[in-house]
Amino acid sequence: MQNSQTVSALNELLKGEHMAIHIYERTKNVQADAQLREMLSKFQGDHERHAGELTQRLQDLGGEPHAATGLAGAMADMGAIINAVRGPEHLIRQVYDGEDKGLHAYEDRIDALDEASKAMVQQIMRDEHDHLQYFAARINSEEQEHN
Ligand SMILES: [Fe+2]
Predict the structure, then answer these.
(1) 97: burial class by Cβ within 10 Å (0-12, 13-18, 19+)?
(2) Ligand 1 centre and the CA of 11: distance in Å?
């Protein structure tokens, strides 16, 4: 059945969104300038919206959305706690890596989706591109400062 392929791909993507939300939860305590803090909270909001959209779409297809908790979230949390302790630049790099993996997860699965899900995911991927670009620029400018 075509739907079951879409449902399992959407559920994998939803798992990734839950991991992202966990990591962004950790960035709340990070020492950062106002602009970075504002972006971190905006991006967390984007991921919460994406998770909501994926959940809704799964329900519309008659699928069972994965719950928000689990090992993936716990592991993302553990890494983020370590990096939060090591300093903001480590956490930003971890968030960047997570964003990069997240975008690849979408790229890898978009062809498995039905048309309606595809259109929704394309919009999500535009947000993800923005997130990735912001962190890339941020890492870049911090490297210049240190040189
Ligand atoms: Fe993102």
Answers:
(1) middle
(2) 17
